[in-house]
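Researcher: I'd like a candidate sequence for this fold, 155 residues long. If you have to choose between options at a position, lean toward the conservative one.
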């Protein structure tokens, strides 16, 4: 049986793929019965689409793989705390457990700015574990934005 750290490392590999494409390095994997059933990484710039977040791509692939929108008994691992849009999709898709690496002080919706997953009244609740490989997940983002600022100064 694999550990949450193992699956976060797989999400981190997705974040690296995003960085190699010039995208903000965020990665996600969906796990069911101890196996990865879907992967995703940010593609907003390439696809020119605000909806192409790592989480939404991974959730979409998981729904297609399982043949339905209910991802009951699935867990989501993502390198950065989800935004409000992604937190809503996590609730709507019935994810069992969310694991995330780095917190997002500017747009995090699982505790940093707001906590949508703790709002009473939704028809589904999601367990949350944060801070898995948080330093590594934070560092790839910091490096990406530092390099982006350097590049912009050179241009």
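Model: Candidate sequence:
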């Amino acid at each position: 049986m694999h550990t949450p750290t193992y699956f976060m490392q797989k999400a981190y590999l997705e974040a690296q793929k995003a960085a190699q494409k010039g995208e903000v390095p965020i990665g996600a994997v969906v796990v069911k019965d101890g196996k990865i059933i879907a992967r995703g990484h940010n593609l907003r710039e390439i696809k020119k689409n605000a909806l192409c977040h790592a989480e939404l791509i991974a959730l979409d692939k998981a729904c297609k793989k399982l043949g339905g929108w209910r991802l009951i008994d699935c867990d989501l691992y993502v390198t950065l705390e989800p935004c409000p849009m992604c937190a809503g999709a996590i609730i709507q898709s019935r994810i069992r457990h969310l694991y995330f690496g780095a917190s997002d002080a500017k747009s995090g919706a699982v505790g940093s700015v707001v906590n949508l997953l703790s709002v009473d009244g939704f028809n589904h609740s999601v367990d949350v574990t944060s801070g898995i490989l948080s330093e590594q997940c934070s560092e790839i983002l910091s490096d990406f934005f530092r390099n982006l600022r350097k590049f912009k100064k050179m241009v």
